[in-house]
Amino acid sequence: MSTTLSRQHSVYVTRNVPESGIQLLTSAGLKVTQWKHDAAVPREELLTNISQVDALFCLLTDKVDSELLDAAGGSLKVIGTMSVGHDHIDMEECKKRGIRVGFTPDVLTHATAELTVALLLATSRRLMEGVQAAKDGSWGTWKPTWLCGPSLQNSTVGILGFGRIGQQVAKNLGGFDVGKIIYTARTEVASCAQRVEFDELLLQSDFLIICCALTDSTKNLFDKNAFLKMKKSAILVNTSRGPVVNMDDLAEALENKEIAGAGLDVTVPEPIPLDHSLLKLNNCVVLPHIGSATNEARSAMSRLTAENIIAALNNQKMPAEL
Ligand code: DGY
After folding, report:
1. Could you say which of 142, 148, 164, 316 has the lowest number of CB atoms within 10 Å?
2. What is the pLDDT of residue 2?
3. Helix, strand or coil for residue 57?
């Protein structure tokens, strides 16, 4: 890929991101303007700053809609989102305006699948309660029936969404002597896991892991009715997008012991309000959307976002275009 642009183009970067991506942009001759903070750029500031830019380097927290595209104006040619999820981008509107969109698949697959297994184990093996007990003196003595949870061994693991991340989670579970892996997805995938209908996934899973994209058909998929179909001993894990799970229904299901536990890396909204009932439950582990947070993945995501932008500005094939 050529990295030299024919004329100086400009890019607006909406946050502090790993420097490797910024270096690629500047070495390609781009004029980079950046919101150099860890907090999100205020919307008004963003709308003002993107006026007449050629490219936008954004994150999953930046809503890319008609308002933003209007504010950017006719010069905007490409949007690179530093994420694999793209539900924050109005793709139809981008297509209509001829704006190309790049994203960051693959480079975060291992990091996210790793975190998914970590969250599953933290929830099922009650790690947060254990850490708390070690710190606050309630450990007491070794107790045969204390802080027990279900084993992965011989269990049925269900995965909703069997794309890159879902398949990698299944691979990661390879060493746990799981009894069976089942999945629900639009298409059949060649693997040793078995494809089942969504209701079967709910009924059979001891551990149910959500790895699907957020779409109209997955929004609120886990509601009261879904929880009632699940095993009372089931553990739910969500590392995809918060809105796939109805949070109030989940809190109720956990309180009423309709399911045994939940591990969430994603919530609605983010951050989860401090007074949310889910935060008061011992059988719910909430993480602050850190699925892809390895040094390696975040750096690769930053670079791939930059490469997508540079390629599009050169009228070339983008490494990962939506
Ligand atoms: C994504 O990329 O969509 C994740 O949610 C954050 O890395």
Report:
1. 142
2. 47
3. strand
Atom of ligand 1 nearest to the CA of 111: 7
Please give the Cα distance from 272 to 266 (Å, whole number): 9
* d(CA 118, ligand 1 centre) in Å: 17
Cis bond upstream, residue 269 (ω within 30): yes
Hey, which residues are catalytic here? Answer: 289
Atom 3 in ligand 1: which residue has the minimum CA distance? 85
Q: Contact, 281 vs 252, CB < 8 A?
A: no
User: Is residue 235 classed as helix, strand or coil in its secondary structure?
Assistant: strand
Which ipTM value was assigned to this complex? 0.97
Cis bond leading into 243, ω under 30°? no
Tell me if 10-107+295-313 shares its fold with 109-286. Answer: yes
In CATH, 10-107+295-313 is 3.40.50.720: yes
The CATH number of domain 109-286 is 3.40.50.720:
yes
Residue 60 CB less than 6 A away from ligand 1:
yes
- Give the pTM: 0.94
* Centre of ligand 1 from the C-alpha of residue 230, in Å: 27
**Span from the CA of 198 to the centroid of ligand 1 (angstroms):** 24
